[in-house]
Amino acid sequence: MSATTALRLCLVEDDPIMGESLCDRFELEGFACDWHQTAASALASIGKKKYAVAISDIRLGDASGMELFAQLKLTGLPLPPFIFITGYGSIDTAVELLKQGAEDYITKPFDLDLLLEKIRSLSKSAQANQISQRSSVLGISAEMRRIADALPRLSSHANTILITGESGVGKEVVAKELHCSSPGHDGRPFVAVNCGAITESLLEAELFGYEKGAFTGATRTKKGFFEQANGGSLFLDEIGDMPLSMQVKLLRAIQERCIVRVGGETSIPVNLRLICATHRDLKKMAEQGAFREDLFYRINVIHLKIPPLNERKEDILWFAGMFLKQFAEQHDEEQKSIHPSAEAALLAYGWPGNIRELKHHIERACILTARTTLMTGDLFDCAPQNEASIATESTAKLANYLHACERLHILNMLNEHQWQMNKTAAELGISRKNLWEKIKKLGIRNEVEACDCADDSEATR
Q1: Is 21 in contact with 199 (CB distance < 8 Å)?
Q2: Which of 65, 67, 89, 436 is a Cys-bridge partner for 459, taking CB atoms 3.0 to 4.6 Å apart?
Q3: 376 in helix, strand or coil?
Q4: Are both 8-131 and 311-416 of the same fold?
Q5: How far apart are CA 262 and CA 133, in angstroms?
Q6: b/e string for 438-454 if b means 16 or more Cβ within 10 A?
Q7: Residue 391 pLDDT > 70, yes or no?
Q8: pLDDT (0 to 100) of residue 382
């Protein structure tokens, strides 16, 4: 893709000479800048518009910087990092603003290079924090963390990406996170298309658009999905279901980054990131002649493979908790919890429908259950029966039940602290040695060996 949109700054300065000078310098340094000459103007914009950093004078014509900051905090809207410009006599006010949540202040007369250095540092931190918060929706397993960590770089360098995985693993969620990982993505379109849901006769017109009169019923000119996604990302889901006749036209559009509307003659350039996804084995399909080989190699530039949910057990309870929270927020009710034996049942189940199936189980249980604690029978019509779900509500022996609860709790704490033994032991209120002993006793050895944990010998120290 083309260069990303410049980070936007918010400047609140009532001095026209100072304001104009700072705006000019910010823009020369590659930032976009909105200049507000009154606190009222800034109040109407900050929090509603996304700024990398806000720079405000403490002394303003219609209000003080402290009053502006206090009113902004009362709105409850997300605020950018604030740097305040102050005279020597207002340093006490600036210090008070730091206590209230401002990031930094600078005194007049100030070094403009120093101010720019502070702005760059804060904007990078804010970007990293936003990316970290967004990518957390993918899961906490090592596999999904690796994918989340790769998204910012892919968003900056990759124009064509292929995402594969079973139905329901979250391919579209990954595609959206990839789109949102680009700085300045706000305002850029993300257009999702299910190639298998559009009939072959309509697919070309939907993808490339059509001119008025191109066919019966074409009463107006319409932009297709490629044009709608121009400047942003186009997500072609289930591309393996696309007819061979359409694959030829898609290949041409990808190679030339131009499209021609149905019934038209003008070549229209498009600048977008193309993200394709499928649950099928495209390479095998290409070998069998069911998918064009040249198209396969054209879209298989960067390949992200999403593992099924049953191969990343750490994500199961994490997603269950997230779905419980979402349901409670959407329906304005108390958030339900999951009984430890029901958690063990969730971990034991194979989840052939992956995350989508898990979400449906949670929503169903929340709707049909009046209790605040969900049991196995609430989540499953028939409880999964295998050795991992020995702790059931009524029949399990006490020793087995306690074993399952203890194992689950320790595993949750290990995942929460990314398998850092010292932090996990402190959270559990036990020694590191005791934690290692419990890990061995409870049979969590496979998970330990999969992580870069300390050597087994530490358990005997």
Answers
A1: no
A2: 436
A3: helix
A4: no
A5: 42
A6: bbeebeeeebbeeeebb
A7: no
A8: 57
What span, in angstroms and rounded, lies between the C-alpha atoms of 393 and 339? 9
Structure tokens at 420: 């850092």
CB-count exposure of residue 17 (10 Å: 0-12, 13-18, 19+):
exposed
| CB contact set of 297 (below 8 Å; sequence gap of 6+) | none
Contact 8, 51 (CB under 8 A): yes
Q: Cα 199–205–208 angle (5° rounding)?
A: 125
pTM to 2 decimal places: 0.59
What pLDDT is stored for residue 401 in this prediction?
Answer: 58
Instruction: Residues 8-131: name the CATH superfamily.
Output: Response regulator (3.40.50.2300)
CA distances from 276 to 34, 40, 242 (A): 37, 46, 11
The amino acid occupying position 305 is K
Would you say 232 and 179 are in contact if contact means Cβ atoms under 8 Å apart?
yes
Residues 6+ apart with CB under 8 A from 438: 406, 410, 430
Q: Residue 432 has which token pair? A: 């590191």
Q: Mean per-residue pLDDT for 369-396?
A: 64
Measured in whole angstroms, how far is the alpha carbon of residue 92 from the centre of its chain?
40
Distance in angstroms (rounded) separating the CA atoms of residues 24 and 19: 9
State the CATH architecture for 311-416.
Orthogonal Bundle (1.10)
Each domain of the chain, given as residue ranges in start order, spans 8-131, 139-307, 311-416
The string of DSSP letters for 28-76 reads HTT-EEEEESSHHHHHHHBTTB--SEEEEESB-SSSBHHHHHHHHHHHT
The CATH label, of 3.40.50.300, 3.50.50.60, 3.90.1150.10, 2.60.40.10, for the domain at 139-307 is 3.40.50.300
Residue 387: CB atoms within 10 Å: 7
d(CA 306, CA 309): 9
Q: Please tell me the distance from the alpha carbon of residue 58 to that of residue 83, in angstroms, as a whole number.
A: 10
